[in-house]
Amino acid sequence: MSASGVIRGGGLAALAGGALWVAVFAVYASRSQVPGPPYGSFDGLRVPGLLSLLLIGLGFLGLDLPRWRGRGHGRLGRVGFDVALLGVFAIVVSGASWPVGMIGAWVLMAGSLMVGAAALLSGTLPRWGALALMVGSVAFFLFDTAPARAWFALPYGAAWVAVGYLLWSRGGSAAEQPSRVR
Question: Is pTM beyond 0.90 here?
Answer without folding.
Answer: no
